[in-house]
Structures are given as structure tokens and as C-alpha cells.
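Ticket #4471: structure export looks truncated?
Reporter: QA, pipeline team
Priority: medium

Steps to reproduce: submit the single chain below to the structure queue and open the exported record.
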Amino acid sequence: MPDIYRYTSPVAPKDATGPVAAAYAQIKDEFLLADGPFMTLSRAPELLVCVWALLRESELAGPVPRAERELVAVAVSAANTCPFCVDAHTALGHAGGDHTAAEAVRAGRRPRDPALAALADWAAATGDPTPGPRPAPPFPADHTAAFIGTALVTHIINRVTSSLLVERLLPGDLQRSRTVRRVLGAAVRRGPGRPVAPGRSLELLPATDTAPPAWADGPVGTAYAALAGTVASLDVPDTVRARTRDAVAAWDGRPPALFEDPVGAHADGLDAPDRTAVRLAVLAALSPHRIADADVAAWRAATGRTADADLVRLVVLGAFTAADRIQRSLAAAAARRDPAGQPGEA
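Actual output as written to the record:
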């Protein structure tokens, strides 16, 4: 496998079986099966199918323009400082027919089109889960599931990518060339870049008793509920789960400063297995770029858990815990609409 992976060795497509093979087939057919976050998730098949379903049903399926959803993904990724994801979604924006707006956001500028600029502003602000003024959703109510779902799955994938992959999308950093990004987008558009019908990924999902969130009807809600239920059932100590949740609840929405330890007192008083696990999960949630070789080595030594699947599950626990807090904030803002379903004051 390529050297873009940190700490894990994904399942190669030729070796995939069962749910991994089924997910890979859909991703190749409808999105882009390439080295990256989906293959990283392959060691935990129950998470791979759920994250894929949430991305497919929110970002790819249905009538909302694909380019607008890729713009949301670019803006979220830029706010989260995930260069791999910024470049990938900028190229996919080209696949959706947008050759300027995503490129503008990638370069740190606002799109010239006022409607797209408002959409990018909204997306960039989604990472702040704290109460207070924020841009009202700049889209009609019937697009809520697509845009919020796209923002949330991007927050999750950004954290998985920053935790477990290097920042290079293509060999030699070729993705830095706008021409290369546009060529890549054209290749996707000729292949798996076509529109897709909602619902196909739901056949991959495990059963869950978790209810869909109020903002997400149809397949997006089903996919989010399946992911939430799967994360809730992960084999992670209750103490690790609770301390991670507490750290995310105390988060003020800003990236921790370089001199701050984002884990802080949340790991105090724990034995080595739980302390090292809390550190990895909290870093994945709040500052995934800081996960270092020493953190992974200490956790593996303390717990004896050397399987790739265990690390992937711990990282996704942190990533989803952060995204779910963001979800509650976005849901509250989306609910503040006038009776006609148009954006209200947020």
C-alpha cells in the first residue's frame, strides 16, 4: 500500500470481502475508490459502511447541486485545516461543474457569487458548536439534510484523515496544481461523478434502534442514525467514552493553541490503558493533527491492542463525538426558520 497511511494498513481492494467489498464496489461505482480515508476505515467494516452511507446520501444523492455540496466540504475542510480533504473536494467540485468557487475557498478567498459565498461562510462556521450568533442556513428547508449531512460527514472524515493519513493527496504533491485538480475532476465526472439515486447504500447498514435526528429525513437520517448507533456500540471502555464526551462538551469551538494540551485534566486519575485511550480519542476530536507516534505507541503498549481496527474505532469515537456536538448546534439553527421554511435568524 502507498505510504500515505499512518499506523494502519488498509484492506486492499483485491483482498476485500463481505461488507468491505460491498462498500468498495459502491464507492468505486459512484464516488472515487482511491487511497484515502475510506480505505483507512476498512479495518472497521461497521464504520466504513456507515460513514460511506452518510457521505453518499448527503453529498452525492438527490437533486441538490453536487458542486454546492462539494463547496461545503471544501469550506469545512479548510476551516479544519485538512489539506488532503481540501484538495480532494476541490477536485470533486470541478467534477460537479464548479471551476471557481471551490478554488476560491481553497485559496482563502470568498466566492464571487453572493449565494455561494454565503454557503461557504455557513459551512466554515459549522465547526463552532457553542451558542451564539452564526450565519443562518442559506438554503431552503428541503435542502437541510443534504447540506448538514455533508458538513457533518466532512467533519468526521477530516478528523480521520488528519489522525491516520499524511497530508499528501497525490504523489509529488501534484494536487497543488490547479490544472491537475481540474483534470482529476474531469476524470471523475466521466466516471463515478454522475448523479446517483438516494438509498442504495442503506442495504449495507447494520440495524439500529437509534432514531434519526429531526433535521434529516429519508436516507440521510437513516445513515446518520446507523452511524450514531454503531459508535455507541463500539468496544470502548465506558470511562474512555465518558471522558471523551466531557472534553468535547467543554470545547469552545476553537482549535487548541499550540501551547495548550487539549486533553488537559480529562485523563487525570486514570490507569495507563484508559489514560492513553482518552488521549487518542480527545486528540482525534479536537486536534487530530497532534496525534503522534508516541501517543499511538503508548496506547498500544498500555492496552495490548495492536489491531488496526481498535485504533480506527478509537479515532472514529473521537471524531463522531465532536461531529455529534456540532450536529446539535446545526440542528438548533436549522430549526429557527419561518413557517414558509426559509432561513430565519440564527
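Status: closed, not a bug. The export was complete when the record was re-opened. Leaving a note from the reviewer for reference: Residues 136 and 346 are 5 Å apart (CA to CA).
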